[in-house]
Design goal:
- The protein has a single domain, classed as Flavodoxin domain (Rossmann fold).
- Helices cover about 35% and strands about 25% of the residues.
- The chain has 4 helices and 6 strands; from the N terminus they run βαββαβαββα.
- Strands 1, 2, 3, 4, 5 and 6 form a 6-stranded parallel beta sheet that branches.
- Strand 4, helix 3 and strand 5 form a beta-alpha-beta unit.
- Helix 1 packs parallel to helix 4.
- The longest helix is centred in the N-terminal third of the chain and has 15 residues.
- Bound molecules: flavin mononucleotide.
- Flavin mononucleotide binds next to helix 1 and strand 4.
Length: about 150
Amino acid sequence: MAAITLISGSTLGSAEYVAEHLETLLQQDGLTTALLHDPELDALPLSGIWLVVTSTHGAGELPDNLQPLYEAIASQLPDLSAVRYGAVGLGNHEYDLFCGAIRQFDALLQRCGAQRIGDRLEIDVLQHEIPEDPAGEWIAGWKVLI
Ligand SMILES: Cc1cc2nc3c(=O)[nH]c(=O)nc-3n(C[C@H](O)[C@H](O)[C@H](O)COP(=O)(O)O)c2cc1C
């Protein structure tokens, strides 16, 4: 059975709730999961499946809790060729850099050799009052690809 490491980046809680919702849905399918809110590179398995769920803050920036992991990966450039991952972003299209955080994270993981599973999901919180809804629809398609 696949084990999935969920990594959540959130400032005000919305992305964290989405990550928790997706974890629940994956567990209901019998998948084994671990959800990390303050992930450190040393604590992450460098193989298997990751699911990154992050909002964007500042001007297209990562939430504070995800920034250290991003910087650790960017400076160490670990070999992530044994990692496959999903990417979910929350943002607001009125900002110039819509979903900038997940786009940055996605690009960095690919630079390290990780392979994305399926398309990146970018949820516009102005269009979706309940971001768990589009996330739940997306995960139904994603999980058949893993
Ligand atoms: C100060 C601030 C800056 C933001 N900057 C961006 C941005 O640059 N790009 C974007 O797409 N969304 C931006 N957003 C929207 C947030 O990503 C969105 O509200 C999200 O739902 C917050 O999720 P969270 O509660 O997990 O942090 C910003 C929101 C705030 C409050």
